[in-house]
Amino acid sequence: MSLVQDIVAASLIVAGLLIMLVGSLGILRLPDFFTRTHAASKVDTTGIIFLLAGLAVFEGPTQAMGKLLITIAVIMLANPVAVHALARAAWNYGERPWSNGDDSGGRKSK
Amino acid sequence: MESFFVGATVALVGIILLPFYRVIRGPTVFDRLLAIGAMGAKTVGLVCMFGFLYGRFYMFADIALAYATLNFIAGIAVAKYFSRERSAEK
Question: What ipTM does this complex have?
């Protein structure tokens, strides 16, 4: 592979990994379920987009790269919708968002 | 470039295992579902990385695509189940 392609691919992959790390830490650290949905849907999807884009750059113009781009499109559509459905289910179930100062961490619904 | 992929894959496995804490401790059932959904979404990237590690990415591309779709369908099914359960209890 040409050197430039390697460098661009490697930097995109590292960026994707770092964003996914932020997503995981967000899921662990944020106080309430509804705040964690930010980490799980938006940050996660961006991390995967960067990772798969880096792999696509590294792959070069082959058929597998087309499948990679389709996978990116599927995840961009699917991931936020699934987490939104989950948040809607939580709202119907009786969960209420965290407000400042209340540190029950989402145990109100018990 | 090969060792870079091995390092990136190991880092990705570490990142995927992080939400397990939320699965174990999560106060509400939805936290657990959220963590599992996030791990499922990240596994798509892991499958692609394995494809490059083995040098046969054209086989793994389909697996990643199928897994992304299945993860979405499972998420919707679980959300639909739970949004109905509370009204059944009342």
Answer: 0.86
